[in-house]
Write a structure and sequence with these properties.
The strands form 3 sheets. Strands 3-4-2-1-14-13 form a 6-stranded mixed β-sheet. It has helices at 2-22, 29-39, 55-59, 62-75, 90-100, 157-171, 194-197, 200-212, 227-234, 240-244, and strands at 46-53, 79-83, 104-107, 116-119, 123-129, 137-142, 145-151, 180-185, 219-220, 223-224, 238-239, 266-270, 278-283, 298-303. The protein is α+β, with helices and mostly antiparallel strands and 307 residues long. The chain has one domain: Deoxyribonuclease I, Chain A (4-Layer Sandwich).
């Protein structure tokens, strides 16, 4: 009986330890999926969109920028949408894109935390929104797709909700049936991940984050506030990562950061018109993305629509 009790206690301790570690362990499947989705880089029948918060303009490190140039040139997505393109001029963007094999670029602004796009395809109908948003929004038409790139307020859920209301005004202007992609760093967790956050360890990390950052507001009445993302889902936008992945994975932090407050706040959403064309989506994880930024990029792969 004593041995049985000891075995039961040992098993219980193992399960507790395993569940605790599970919150911090990488979803290794993302590394394999990244290799798979970039393997057929020259497939003319697919369209690949990459969204990446590059941490204050590659931390103003030209070596990191060159590493990214080489990396993206080999993987060859059709469009790359940047957040935190800090300190990089339009001329530098054009040169970086040219070296990586991209002929078309747009920079939202110079000051603060800019958004930017580089594309294999012509960029038209550009709208740059700065006023009324902390980092802003960038709209463009590319290869028949409506693109909206954004970076929501880093501090409070109230501000993020207001910024989503601004996004929805632009989303609702897109004619029904036309393909729309919305991407960026939303700084807000998703209600679709609620089951993965609904545990004591995660909530302790969130509460500590609020304590250490008094201006931050992540929770309301002791629970994570999901309204900003819920509004997008209610408007019919599809979280592409959740559409194709069932096991939780974090988009931040990367291995560059030491803290364990795992979160998925980087998204590529698509509208219902694109649902039949979606092939797969992943959080892009490899040796470079582990440390280039504090966020991992997002990748969406689509069957090309008629342009």
């Amino acid at each position: 009986m004593k041995k049985q009790l000891q075995s039961f206690v040992a098993l219980a301790l193992f399960l507790i330890a395993f569940n605790t570690r599970a919150q911090n362990v990488e979803n290794l499947a993302s590394y394999e999926k990244t290799k798979l989705l970039f393997a057929e880089q020259q497939d003319s029948k697919v369209f690949k969109a990459l969204s990446y918060n590059v941490l204050e303009g590659f931390r103003k490190d030209s070596t990191l920028m060159r590493s990214f140039q080489e990396w993206v040139a080999k993987r060859n997505p059709d469009v790359v949408a940047f957040q935190e393109f800090n300190g990089i001029s339009k001329a530098q963007l054009v040169e970086m894109a040219k070296v990586a094999g991209y002929s078309y670029t747009v920079l939202q602004k110079r000051a603060g935390f800019p958004l930017a796009i580089m594309s294999k395809h012509r960029i038209t109908d550009v709208v740059k929104v700065i006023d009324g948003m902390h980092h802003g929004m960038l709209y463009a038409k590319i290869a028949g797709y409506h693109f909206i790139v954004t970076h929501l307020h880093p501090k409070t859920y109230e501000e993020r909700i207001l910024e989503v209301d601004t996004l929805l005004k632009y989303i609702n202007r897109v004619p029904k049936g036309e393909p729309l992609l919305l991407m960026g760093d939303f700084n807000n967790m998703s209600p679709l991940d609620k089951a993965d956050y609904n545990n004591e360890a995660k909530m302790k990390l969130v509460v500590n984050s609020e304590k250490n950052n008094p201006e931050a507001r992540i929770t309301k009445n002791g629970e994570i506030e999901y309204t900003a993302i819920q509004k997008l889902l209610d408007a019919g936008m599809i979280d592409t990562w959740r559409k194709f992945n069932t096991v939780y994975d974090k988009s931040a932090p990367t291995k560059l950061k030491k803290h364990q407050n795992y979160t998925r706040i980087d998204y590529i959403f698509m509208n219902q018109a694109l649902a039949p064309y979606a092939i797969d989506a992943t959080i892009v994880k490899d040796q470079l993305t582990d440390t280039l930024s504090d966020h991992y990029p997002m990748l969406l792969v689509l069957k090309k629509t008629a342009q």
